[in-house]
Amino acid sequence: MGYTPSAGEAIADGAPEICIDIEDTMSGIDDATIAIIVNGVEYDLDSLGFTWNGSQMCFYPESLGIWWNGGDIIEVCASAFDLNCDCPNELDSCWSFLIASGGPVASFARPEPDIVSACVEESVVIMLYDPQEDNIVDTTITLSVSRNGGIPEVLIQGGTSQLRWFENDSILILNPSPPFANGDTLDVCITVAEDTLGNELEDSVCVRFAMDLSAYEAFGHQPSNLDSVNTRTPDISIIAVDSITGIVDSSVIFIVDGNEYTLDSSSLWWGNDSTLVFSPESAGVYWNGGYCVVCSLYAHDQPTVGYCEPNDSTVWWMFYIASGGPSADIARPLENTFSSCVDEHIIMIIQDTDGVDPTSIILQVEGISYTVDSTQLGFSNDSLYFYPTIPFANEDTINVILAAANDVLGNPIDATIDWSFIMDMTAPWTTLDEPMGEMVRDREQDIAITIGDELAGVDAASVRIWVNEIEYDGTNFIWTENTGIRGGTVLFVPENVGVKFPPGDSVCVVISATDEVDYCADNEYDTTYCFMIEPEVACLAHPNPFTPNGDAINRFAVFDYPYMLSEGATLKIYNLRNVLVYEEKLEKVENIRQFDDRNWDGKDNDGKPLATGLYIWMIIRNGEVVCNGTIVIAR
Predict the structure, then answer these.
(1) DSSP string covering 359-377, please?
(2) Phi, psi (deg, nearest 5) at residue 262
(3) What is residue 181's three-state secondary structure?
(4) Which residues of the chain register pLDDT less than 70?
(5) Whole-number Å distance between alpha carbons of 466 and 478
(6) Which of 116, 141, 326, 438 has its CA 20 to 30 Å from the CA of residue 253?
(7) C-alpha to C-alpha distance for 404 and 379, rounded to whole angstroms
(8) Domain 105-211 has CATH 1.10.580.10
(9) Do 605 and 593 form a contact (C-beta atoms < 8 A)?
(10) pLDDT tens, residue by residue, 195-204
(11) pLDDT, position 409
């Protein structure tokens, strides 16, 4: 007798076939007595899943829905008698085998334990395999994700889009939704996974890591931004803090007036754990009165290497060195502003504790220098006024330079001031994007209008539309910004506000908008666009009957059909024997009273009068019959 599986064998199959080879060379085997006993249950020739071919009997547990789990021990006995008539000899042999045990094994490929990631779309990659090479039942894979010590979120493969299982590669990927957030501390564990034998995960595996998606914070600038100080060598400091991974000292670059300093320099150091201090005097730097000192700090933090680039940031600020000479500020128009004022003029404030010498002032406008001796320039009570002889023109960019100004002691202004502003006296423009034609069928036709203004730009809050004299504001239409034209597109969707235009109705849209100038009134624009909703036309042949008898009364029949104002069609006339007697291509008509292109005079295509009687007419468009009926010729 031989059998499979062998005694004591571990089988990586939850439903293995069990076969026993038996023979009796003397009297033969009594077929009626053969049986296999599996875990105490007997299966014979009458049992489903049992086969016998005369020398081998087999049992197929899967055909009976029997499935054993990993670690189960299967007890098998073979039973049979020979055909010895006087005293049959009995076969009674037993053995056992087992279903392989040992469940899946998991390990984290990414991220590593205790790392800090700067990846905005950080994912978790888990290697999950079964050492016994049994397949893993993916629907059993379960993860828990806890953010900042909170209640874990339980994720089951197949039950969430956050998990993706790559069976061929034995890889499970978690793409969290929402993504891991800045400052999060994550605890991710794989807690459940079974192979096809029911063997459970050997050990649950967890990883803890943190997210750092933000650069350092900077505050407490000294001197403050735009501040003025009364020393030529003020110490400069800034508080810079990164509370998650800290700032990398080697990344610190402090730039003053274009010169770079690092912590390797003796003039730059950490005053405490978070205050960075720069000493101009140590660097041999001295500034004159009125000088604008521009500072910047670049630095990055230190997430774990291999987990995206560090979070970096550059902080800018500036301050001034108080001067002995006059100080000057622009009053109007400010730098890069827009003006629609016909009488636009320039005002500056020039001050000095010792007093300003008006005769020293030189103001350049569009390359021409002016002094207080010029009729256009005046100075009074610390205010400098410039009024152009010819008003500034629309679309002009006006360039202005305060080239010189001294106090009464002869101290000059420390630096020239130059700036420009733009004249904008042109209103926005519009184009109608939808509908494209003058007539449409859609009774809820969307209306799209583009508004642009290449100078000051469109004030989106000013946009208003009136549709058939009903006003709609920004809550009733969709505004899509277009920076390329410094404007955008208005989309009015009638069905959103319960509007449906009647057939044949003329729809008129008034649109109004302004630009956003900084001085004087905004330039306003409004215009009107109109289109028509195509009338509904029913199928009709009239008069019916008609009398083409030469008396000029009812001498032809006119055919109406749907959408004849926008599309042509084909007219076909058949007699009662279904013979085509007349065919004509109908062009679209301009109005309902245009009969010439859609009538029939009772003649065939050869111009011969047809007999009186009943005829069948059809209107066909794009191969489809849109109208049909009968028409009678009477004489």
Answers:
(1) EEEEEEETTEEE-TTSTTE
(2) -120, 175
(3) coil
(4) 288-289, 323, 409
(5) 14
(6) 116
(7) 14
(8) no
(9) no
(10) 888 888 878 9
(11) 66
Look up residue 631 and give its two tokens. 């028409």
Task: Say what the pTM is.
Answer: 0.45
Start-to-end Cα distance in the chain: 110
Integer CA distances (angstroms), 258 to 254, 285, 296, in order: 9, 12, 9
Residue 542 near residue 632, CB atoms below 8 Å:
no
Contact call for residues 304 and 117 (beta carbons, < 8 A) = yes
Q: Within 13 A of 308's CA, how many CA atoms are on the CB side? A: 18
Q: Which CATH number fits domain 2-99: 2.30.130.10, 3.40.50.80, 3.20.20.140, 2.60.40.1220?
A: 2.60.40.1220
Other residues' Cβ atoms within 10 Å of the Cβ of residue 300: 20
- Token digits of residue 606: 């050869």
Residue 35 structure tokens:
């049986």
> What was the pLDDT predicted at 523?
96
The pLDDT assigned to 213 comes to: 96
DSSP secondary structure code for residue 45 in this structure: T
Burial class of 521 by CB neighbour count within 10 A (0 to 12, 13 to 18, 19+)? exposed
Going by C-alpha positions, the residue among 525, 503, 495, 497 that lies closest to residue 512 is: 525
Instruction: Give the HSE-up count for residue 196: Cα atoms under 13 Å, Cβ half-sphere.
Output: 9
Of 364, 406, 356, the residue nearest 381 (C-alpha): 356
Rounded to whole angstroms, the Cα distance separating 457 from 406 reads 39
Q: Can you give the pLDDT at residue 556?
A: 93
Contact (Cβ atoms closer than 8 angstroms) between residue 60 and residue 49: yes
Q: Dihedral angle at the C-alpha atoms of 452, 455, 459, 462, nearest 10 degrees?
A: -70
Q: What confidence score (pLDDT) does residue 4 get?
A: 92
Q: What is the per-residue DSSP string for 458-525?
A: B-GGG-EEEETTEEE-TTTSEEEEEGGGTEEEEEE-GGGGT--PPTT-EEEEEEEEEB--SBSPPPEE
CATH number of 429-533: 2.60.40
Structure confidence at residue 289 (pLDDT): 66
Tokens 């306003």, residue located = 524
Judge: domain 540-633, CATH 3.30.1120.
Answer: no
